[in-house]
From TrEMBL:
Name of the featured protein: Ni,Fe-hydrogenase III large subunit
Domain (Heavy metal binding) ranges: 152-176
Feature: compositional bias, Basic and acidic residues: 190-216, 223-269
InterPro entries: ComplexI_49kDa-like, HMBD, NADH_Q_OxRdtase_suD, NiFe-Hase_large
């Protein structure tokens, strides 16, 4: 257990006084946390944030605690630094089960990954915040990702971007200076931008905590008075664009002088202004034939209703989606050094936080096959029971995200409770949950307008192929590794499929699989975690397949003297993430987000 920091790294500027101490104590009693990578990761570690005395925050502006769970990848570390900079002071950092992110100051409180330690850490954090919310000289926060550079863009053709002043080659207008993130590589640039002044830009939140289904756009800026440092030049805040910060562009100065520019070749008319026909002739046409600017807007990697670590880049044509692409900021790399078999099992398990048992079982089976060991039928049934228990908890976790995305608070609360109850439950406890799970299914099926909201959304293209998991089975495909497993056949397993291939069908498919998994657990017996048997110094090649909650995962590896020297991992999410582009194209923004969420993508299961 780590001791709390003596001073708050994100204290607000102000000389300590009785009034400020009272404010600090009030803030300490109302902790609102932004969870990174996301609330779903907290749940799979059996962490109940609400029971510990904190509430969830959907956006940085609503949070005073940044809760970091586990170790972050480099890309997610950078994105989280921007999140932290966007949080208003006073703000605190709480780290559970891992080191403090490299881009951050020292954590105010650190603890292990357990509910008991979370509760203790919350108590310590409340004391630190109550006593150190204000400081005469608070520590400035800066990170490389927050640095800016100047680039020049055409006001009418935002795709025209140059590093030097000049004119647009499409319309001849003067290019306008704007700030951009210091990293020119779009893949490396996190989707948010902070000026590390503690300004809170309410209309700059397209992906972190901004629910586009409810269009809660704030068209004003809140200027907090605790600037971390003075910017070397002034800003005209009246000319911020809603989408600028998504590309780390921040402030865009629209004032420009056309007087010294030669607009040869363009028909400006007698007034000196260009014809709108001329200006818009090169713009893409919308479905209704209108010419509009297309804006690239990132959502994630901490967007409510989407899994943490997933970055969704959408090109918006008004409130419709022209095109889109999803990438992972936390995907596992297949590159590895020679490591012991036991270490490989633990690393693969840790790398897949949303389905750790599935990948533990996958690694154990592949290694044992490479070592020439026969399947141990005495433990196989117990492992099947544990695998189905994880499937139930995973589908409930997806329902939590669905509730958060659709604004169904009752669904979020109920599914959260059931997921926590089922994750480590015994066979008897799981059987006792059957009435509650049946009641949840019944309520969802009779929820007013839910079917209307999901039916027809995210329908798979007719040429979709190599789909896996519930996504495939909801589209009438019987693809399921469990069909070929002898233990599952003994238990009477039958593949269940649905029709429609849309978000509604995927919801019904997962609800049906929860019931089927309960039946299998009743027949298989007490769940037990997979344990790698002794393989000594065996050498060989092995392969295995497991039907994870999101679909089939295949692992091939090579052993030399008990060491894993190479492996190839193929997962369902590697295939299903490719559906995003077709599912979002031409959809309204809210429908596109629902479609992506219905795929239940795990960014950790996407190879980087």
């Amino acid at each position: 257990m780590s001791e709390a920091a003596t001073t708050l790294a994100g204290a607000r500027k102000g000389r300590p006084s009785i009034v400020q101490r009272l404010v600090g104590r009030a803030l300490a009693r109302n902790l609102s946390c932004l969870i990174v990578p996301g609330p779903e990761v907290a749940l799979v570690h059996s962490l109940d944030v609400v029971a510990a005395g904190m509430r969830f925050a959907a956006t940085p502006r609503d949070a005073n605690v940044l809760l970091v769970i586990g170790e972050l990848s480099r890309k997610l570390d950078e994105a989280t630094a921007v999140l932290y900079a966007q949080m208003p002071r006073p703000r605190a950092i709480l780290v559970l089960g891992g080191p403090a992110p490299s881009s951050f100051p020292q954590a105010d409180v650190a603890a292990g990954l357990s509910q008991a330690e979370l509760i203790d850490a919350t108590d310590r954090l409340q004391r630190v915040l109550a006593e150190g919310a204000f400081a005469a000289s608070p520590e400035d926060f800066d990170a490389p990702v927050l640095q800016t550079r100047t680039e020049y863009v055409c006001p009418m053709h935002p795709e025209v971007v140059e590093e030097e002043p000049g004119s647009c080659h499409k319309c001849g207008m003067d290019l306008v200076a704007r700030e951009a993130g210091g990293d020119k590589d779009e893949e490396e640039t996190p989707p948010e931008h902070d000026h590390h002044h503690d300004h809170e830009h309410h209309n700059h939140e397209h992906h972190h905590g901004h629910d586009h289904d409810h269009h809660e756009h704030q068209n004003h800026h809140e200027h907090h008075q605790d600037h971390e440092h003075e910017h070397p030049h002034g800003h005209d805040h009246e000319h911020h664009q809603d989408h600028d910060h998504e590309h780390c562009h921040g402030h865009e100065h629209h004032e420009h002088d056309h007087g010294g520019h030669d607009h040869a070749g363009h028909d400006h008319g007698a007034s000196g202004f260009m014809s709108m026909v001329e200006v818009t002739k090169d713009l893409p046409r919308s479905a209704d034939g209108l010419a509009m600017d297309w804006l690239e807007v990132p959502f994630g990697p901490c967007f409510p209703g989407l899994p943490g670590g997933l970055k969704l880049m959408l090109t918006l044509d008004g409130d419709g989606v022209a095109e889109g692409q999803a990438t992972s900021l936390v995907g596992m790399s297949a590159a590895t050094k020679e490591i012991a078999a036991e270490t490989f099992v633990e690393r693969l398990t840790t790398a897949m936080p949303l389905a750790p048992l599935s990948y533990r079982l996958l690694a154990c089976r592949a290694i044992e096959q490479a070592a020439g060991l026969e399947e141990d039928t005495a433990t196989a049934r117990a492992c099947v029971s544990a695998l189905e228990r994880e499937r139930i908890a995973s589908h409930l976790g997806w329902l939590v995200l669905l509730g958060r995305q659709l604004g169904f608070a009752w669904l979020t609360r109920r599914a959260t409770t059931l997921q926590l109850d089922s994750r480590c439950a015994t066979r008897e406890q799981l059987v006792a949950l059957r009435p509650a799970l049946r009641a949840l299914t019944a309520r969802l099926e009779r929820t007013p307008l839910l079917k209307a909201r999901l039916k027809g959304i995210g329908t798979l293209p007719v040429d979709s192929y190599d789909l896996r998991g519930p996504v495939a089975r909801a589209a009438s495909s019987a693809e399921d590794v469990r069909q070929t497993d002898a233990i599952y056949r003994e238990l009477g397993f039958e593949t269940r499929t649905g029709e429609g291939g849309d978000a509604w069908a995927r919801l019904r498919q997962r609800l049906g699989e929860i019931t089927a998994s309960l039946d299998l657990i009743e027949a298989a017996g007490e769940p037990r975690l997979p344990i790698l048997r002794d393989i000594g110094g065996a050498s060989g090649t092995g392969e295995a397949s497991v039907e994870t909650p999101r679909g089939r995962a295949d692992l091939r590896l090579t052993l030399e003297h008990g060491q894993v020297i190479s492996f190839q991992l193929d997962t369902a999410c590697n295939h299903n993430i490719g559906l995003v582009a077709n599912l979002v194209e031409g959809q309204e923004l809210g429908d596109a987000l629902v479609a992506v969420g219905s795929l239940d993508l795990s960014p950790w299961e996407v190879s980087s």
